[in-house]
Write a structure and sequence with these properties.
The complex is a heterodimer.
Chain A: H1 18-47, H2 51-60, H3 64-91, H4 98-123
Chain B: H1 12-39, H2 44-52, H3 54-82, H4 86-112
Helix pairs in contact in B: 1-3, 3-4
Classes of the chains: A mainly alpha, B mainly alpha.
Binding site for heme (chain A): 80
Membrane topology (chain A): Multi-pass membrane protein
Keywords (chain A): Cell inner membrane, Cell membrane, Electron transport, Heme, Iron, Membrane, Metal-binding, Transmembrane, Transmembrane helix, Transport, Tricarboxylic acid cycle
Chain lengths: 124, 114
């Protein structure tokens, strides 16, 4: 490899096409879900421990912070689900070309934004 | 090829398959749970009735096992991309593996109340 070729690894100067952004968001949302599962398991454990525990979870979910955490986890989950379905469609050969890939990336963003807004309405 | 000792299926093709199969299970479980919570009046009775049924416990355990395998393949991919030094990557992956193990045992305890 020619060692004198120019190298620009300044991420701030990179131009990321939309499919690259949906891909990195898929990764980030996956990590958020992985951490979020701890909150969900905690809530599930408490809610199934008895009627008092269930009411405590209901009470916790009245607080703004808990709603924000749940909305955050739901957002990551919904995005990861939508982007994941796009992957499964690509396994079937749908959306693999440059143009259809860009369209699929746009659809991923649009559908998940709508679902995330709906999830926010549902949580509050 | 040194990295492949830590991947789940010992080969990219197996990892790909594991990722896909678990993705279908997790997608089904997610859609079911969201549907249940959005379209039902969730209270203590309906909630415990759902988690009291054997088929739903099995479905939940399937989702939990899928989560572990799915997260392992995903986090393995992410860590091998971004953490180039072997020791920090190994430690991070080991930490993720421990968290998955804790999730699994915790989840089984919640479902079957051991």
């Amino acid at each position: 490899m020619n060692s004198k070729r120019p190298v620009n690894l300044d991420l701030g100067k990179f131009h990321f096409p939309l499919p690259a952004i949906t891909s990195i968001l898929h990764r980030i949302s996956g990590i958020i879900i992985f951490v979020g599962v701890a909150f969900l398991l905690y809530g599930l454990d408490l809610s199934l421990s008895g009627e008092d525990g269930f009411n405590r979870v209901s009470g916790l979910l009245d607080s703004f912070l808990a709603k924000l955490i749940i909305w955050g986890i739901l957002s990551a989950l919904l995005y990861h689900l939508v982007a994941g379905i796009k992957h499964l469609l690509m396994d079937m050969g749908i959306g693999e070309e440059l143009e259809s890939g860009r369209l699929a990336a746009k659809a991923t963003i649009v559908v998940s934004v709508i679902l995330i807004i709906l999830a926010g309405v549902w949580v509050w | 090829m040194v990295n492949s000792v830590t991947n789940l299926g010992r080969s990219g093709v197996y990892d790909w398959l594991i990722q896909r199969v678990t993705a279908y299970a997790l997608a089904l479980y997610t859609v079911f749970m969201l549907g249940f919570m959005v379209f039902n009046d969730v209270n203590y009775e309906t909630w415990t009735a759902l988690f009291g049924q054997t088929w739903f416990k099995i479905f939940s355990l399937l989702a939990l096992l899928s989560l572990g395998a799915h997260a392992w393949v995903g986090l393995w991919t992410v860590t091998t991309d971004y953490i180039k030094a072997t020791l920090p990557r190994f430690l991070f992956q080991a930490g993720c593996g421990l968290v998955m193990f804790v999730y699994l045992v915790w989840g089984i305890q919640i479902l079957w109340g051991l």
